Amino acid sequence: MFYLRQIPTFEVLGISFGISKTEANDTFHNWRKIFRKILPASLLEQVGNKEGDLMIVQEILTSFKLIVDSLEQPIDRPSDNEEQKKLFSGKKKQHTRKSQVVSLPEGKDIIDIKVGFPRPTADINLFREQQVFFDGQQTFEGDKGYQGGKNITTPHKRKRKQELSEQQKAENKVLSSKRIFVEHLIRIIKIFQIASQRFRLNSDVYNEIILTVCGLVRLRIGTLVL
């Protein structure tokens, strides 16, 4: 928990708890596997092994407009040239991985999360991949990056040489006030430095680590009962 929150070196972690660097490393990797096993990262993962429960949850969710948003995190530069090109973010001018969160209104739970995508992957394409795990009638709300998606409400976009009407501006403001809750949820995820600072562990455990953090966030906000 201390490592996920503060990401010290394993040498510092060992000193903090009176153990060796090697023992600190082994203990962390042992417990990350346990945490990942007992802390579902999302509601859909939590019920995913029970088809009947999953179908019931999917149906109940259609009563809500779910909120979708993405986040990205810097990673160390890959040694492989092709991997470098795949993960380089022109916008951030560094190598990153992107994740996408679907939440309940007011950020009350993480409904689904997909992690570890290359930064050049467009938000709308991630959304289309994620959308197949929901009921066909499920509705969503998102930012301008999701314009053109099915069953998703996005802000009105100003056309060239035209201004938005007062009604469109008002609707954009209402939508923004709803979407801010998923941004708050992402902020809670990023309180864990392992999910916001440059990722220094082996890239093979990236997805597992971020999903573990999401499980801890669900436990913290009271949506996951052990």
Structure description:
- There is one protein chain.
- This protein has 226 residues and is an alpha/beta fold.
- The protein folds into two domains: 38 residues, no CATH class; 180 residues, no CATH class.
- The protein contains nine helices and six strands, in the order αααααβαβββαββαα.
- Strands 1, 2, 3, 4, 5 and 6 form a six-stranded mixed β-sheet that branches.
- A hairpin with a 6-residue loop joins strand 3 and strand 4.
- Helix 2 packs across helix 3 and helix 3 packs across helix 9.
- 29% of the residues are buried.
What is the rounded Rg? 19 Å
| Portion of residues within helices | 40-55%
- The total strand number stands at 6
Q: Count up the helices.
A: 9
Low-confidence stretches: none
Categorize the overall geometry: globular
SSE string, helices as H and strands as E: HHHHHEHEEEHEEHH
Number of domains: 2
Alpha-carbon distance between the two ends: 17 Å
Give the rounded overall mean pLDDT. Answer: 90
Give the class from helix and strand content and strand pairing: alpha/beta
User: Approximately what portion of the residues adopt beta-strand conformation?
Assistant: 15-25%
Report on the biggest sheet: 6 strands, mixed
Task: Describe the structure concisely.
With 226 residues, this protein is of the alpha/beta class. The chain is built from 9 helices and 6 strands, in the order αααααβαβββαββαα.
Using brief descriptors, characterize the structure shown:
2 domains, alpha/beta, single chain, 9 helices, 226 residues, six-stranded mixed beta sheet
